[in-house]
Write a structure and sequence with these properties.
mainly alpha, 78% helix, 0% strand, binds protoporphyrin IX containing FE
Length: 151
């Protein structure tokens, strides 16, 4: 599979980065929405608006962008020879592990939005604000791994 993308390689890489930006934009927004949604519990009109906003963000941006990032990222990984034991891809293995964790965070945030929609808050506002920082920290590490390729 090494080099299987041929002349399409730069286009696939561009598409990968475009969907990375969409996914990360959604992942920066949803946890912020969760803070506002949690603060609105008890005010049913406002709660309803947050449920609607979270649903739209999920269906229009978050889910499609995450799927596109995975499909395009794996196409690039195969092009780089991850399935052929090509050496020097330690950065890519770590990057994929971090993206798995980031996808888990995505799943947690969607699950918490569903919980808030039933009127239940199980995480304190302070913890929720701290959890807001996860996508930012993950972006710093993942982008350094992808660009610097330190190992
Ligand atoms: C499962 C998910 C992902 C996989 C398998 C993956 C894999 C890859 C691969 C193989 C490349 C091409 C490297 C090269 O050929 O030089 C690449 C490029 C890149 N990826 Fe990902 N990626 C994923 C998700 C992400 C995420 C979530 C981010 C950012 C938060 C990201 C940021 C980048 C950047 C900045 C580049 C460009 C590096 C360059 O200029 O060569 N990727 N990715």
């Amino acid at each position: 599979m090494i080099g299987w993308l041929g002349d399409a390689y730069p286009w696939v890489k561009a598409a990968h980065l475009i969907f990375v930006i969409f996914w990360m934009a959604g992942l920066f927004m949803l946890p912020r929405y969760l803070v506002y949604h949690q603060e609105a519990l008890g005010n049913s009109a406002e709660e309803g608006r947050w449920v609607e906003r979270e649903g739209k963000l999920r269906h229009i941006i978050l889910t499609p962008a995450m799927i596109a990032v995975w499909v395009l990222g794996f196409s690039l990984a195969l092009n780089d020879g991850i399935a052929n034991g090509v050496p020097g891809l330690g950065w890519l293995h770590l990057k994929i592990a971090l993206v798995v964790l980031l996808s888990g965070y995505h799943g947690w945030a969607v699950g918490y939005a569903r919980k808030l929609a039933t009127g239940h808050a199980t995480v304190s506002g302070k913890t929720l604000r701290l959890l807001n920082e996860v996508p930012g920290v993950a972006t710093v590490v993942i982008v350094i791994l992808a660009i610097v390729k330190p190992f």
